[in-house]
C-alpha cells in the first residue's frame, strides 16, 4: 500500500498550465518526480469556472503526450476555465493536478501581423494582415483577431547601415496598407511589424524581417 502511495505521489503531473496564441489554447504539463516510471499515461478534464462538474476531454484520455488541445472547449473567450490532469502507471492513478484559472480573452498572446512588401524607387508599400483565430465563419474562413479586439499595427524600420537594435517606429494605426516615403535609393531597409492591443496594453512579438533595397 505504501509503495502504491509513493508511486501515486511521484507520478502526479506538475506545472499544469494553459498556453494560448490567437485563441489557439492548449493545456501543458510536466511529468511527476518519478522520471523512471514507465508507461505513464495522462487523463485531462476541463470545466468553466463556477461549474461543479468536470468534463472529460476524450481525445486526451489515456494519452502519453503532455499537451492537450482545448481550443474548442475554451471557445467562449470571455469565460474563465480550469484544466486538470492525472497520471496512471502500473494500474495506479495519481491525484489530479489543477491549472490556474484561464480566461482566453485576457490571456491569449496575440501574434504579429503578416507583412507583404511592395517597393518603388523612394518608398515602401506594406500590406498588413491581422493574425487569425482558429474560429471559423460559416463559409469556412478563419475569423481575424480584429473581430475580438481593437488592434493597432506598429511598423518599425531598420536601416541596415545602422545598428540592428535601432528599430525606428514609423507608423502606428489601423491602416492595412501603409506607405513609407522619403527613403534613400540604394539603401537596404528592413521592416518589422507588431500588433498592439490598447485595451490590454500588450504588444505582439515582431513579425519576421522583410528587407528590400530601393
Automatic annotation (TrEMBL):
Its main location: secreted. InterPro entries: FN3_dom, FN3_sf, Ig-like_fold, Interferon/interleukin_rcp_dom, Type-II_Cytokine-TF_Rcpt. Keywords: Disulfide bond, Receptor, Repeat, Secreted, Signal. It is found in: Secreted. PROSITE patterns: FN3. Residues 12-107 form the Fibronectin type-III domain. The keyword Phosphoprotein does not apply. GO terms for molecular function: cytokine receptor activity. GO terms for cellular component: extracellular region; plasma membrane. It comes from the Eukaryota. Receptor for IL22. Binds to IL22, prevents interaction with the functional IL-22R complex and blocks the activity of IL22 (in vitro). May play an important role as an IL22 antagonist in the regulation of inflammatory responses. PANTHER family: INTERFERON/INTERLEUKIN RECEPTOR, INTERLEUKIN-22 RECEPTOR SUBUNIT ALPHA-2. Belongs to the type II cytokine receptor family. This is Interleukin-22 receptor subunit alpha-2. The lineage of its organism: Eukaryota, Metazoa, Chordata, Craniata, Vertebrata.
Amino acid at each position: 500500500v505504501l509503495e502504491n502511495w509513493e508511486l501515486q505521489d511521484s507520478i502526479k503531473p506538475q506545472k499544469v498550465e494553459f498556453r494560448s496564441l490567437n485563441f489557439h489554447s492548449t493545456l501543458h504539463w510536466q511529468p511527476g518526480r518519478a522520471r523512471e516510471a514507465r508507461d505513464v499515461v495522462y487523463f485531462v478534464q476541463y470545466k468553466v469556472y463556477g461549474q461543479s462538474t468536470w468534463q472529460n476531454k476524450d481525445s486526451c484520455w489515456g494519452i502519453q503526450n503532455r499537451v492537450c488541445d482545448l481550443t474548442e472547449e475554451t471557445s467562449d473567450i470571455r469565460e474563465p476555465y480550469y484544466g486538470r490532469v492525472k497520471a496512471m502507471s502500473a494500474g495506479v492513478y495519481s491525484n489530479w493536478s489543477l491549472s490556474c484559472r484561464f480566461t482566453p480573452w485576457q490571456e491569449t498572446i496575440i501574434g504579429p501581423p503578416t507583412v507583404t512588401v511592395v517597393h518603388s524607387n523612394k518608398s515602401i508599400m506594406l500590406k498588413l494582415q491581422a493574425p487569425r483565430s482558429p474560429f471559423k465563419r460559416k463559409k469556412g474562413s478563419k475569423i481575424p483577431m480584429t473581430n475580438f479586439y481593437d488592434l493597432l499595427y506598429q511598423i518599425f524600420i531598420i536601416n541596415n547601415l545602422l545598428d540592428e537594435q535601432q528599430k525606428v517606429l514609423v507608423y502606428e494605426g489601423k491602416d492595412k496598407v501603409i506607405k513609407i516615403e522619403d527613403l534613400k535609393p540604394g539603401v537596404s531597409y528592413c521592416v518589422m511589424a507588431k500588433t498592439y492591443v490598447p485595451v490590454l496594453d500588450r504588444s505582439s512579438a515582431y513579425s519576421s524581417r522583410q528587407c528590400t533595397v530601393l
